[in-house]
Amino acid sequence: PPKKKDIRDYNDADMARLLEQWEKDDDIEEGDLPEHKRPPAPIDFSKIDPGKPESILKLTKKGKTLMMFVTVSGNPTEKETEEITSLWQGSLFNANYDVQRFIVGSNRAIFMLRDGGYAWEIKDFLINQERCADVTLEGQVYPGKGADGNEKVKNKTKPEKAKKKKDTEKKSNGVKEDNRATNQREEL
Description:
- Helices cover 32% and strands 16% of the residues.
- By secondary structure, the chain is an alpha+beta fold.
- The N and C termini lie far apart (65 Å).
- The model is unreliable at 151-157 (pLDDT under 50).
């Protein structure tokens, strides 16, 4: 049995052990568990439309945190991007969507949703905004109203990274890979 210590002599490790003993007997409600420890919500397959793959994603993302990237059209400054995306966030808040916004560049922002099931409704709202160039959601790029003519490719996917192509070209040419710098320039 552990020795009895005076509570005034407890260090951080003793306090952590005491907390673990208290929490061991506690029943933690399912809503208080972190997202990765919660059981997944059951999926009702009768609601899935086989013609729309987005319906499957919508049901699988329900109740999970999801992030979407939004690009503001034109050449906005970071302050302009902050103002424009703030208006969009306010409109979504007024429509009872819980959205957090993070600016990640002079024309890019991340919208973080607590419930990913609403992501496609929010995406539809954003692509109908005048200054929205595109929305990236689950690897799919959706062009917005503010997209240039050359950017408006319907639902294009992200291009594969150039590094993967370069690696396959090296292997096919039989070039020996080493760590030494070469005089040859390689296109990125």
